[in-house]
Amino acid sequence: MSKKDFIALADAIRLGDIQFTPAHLRVLVDFCRSQNSAFKTDRWLSYVAGECGPNGGTIKVKGGAR
Hints:
Helix content is 53%, strand content 0%. By secondary structure, it is mainly alpha-helical. The protein has a domain at 3-48. The chain is globular, with a radius of gyration of 13 Å.
């Protein structure tokens, strides 16, 4: 899987109607790491939680900051 695929998976989790538990996310993390050894677990989990953008940076605010 590529970085693009991991972001798409995280987006599906973030926008879905199902609440994922930490155990669910751990299973997904283990799978993602098995698919790509460069997978960044902490960054991906932070993005799923809405704490950062898809590349690990700050979240962009629509309309810009004032």
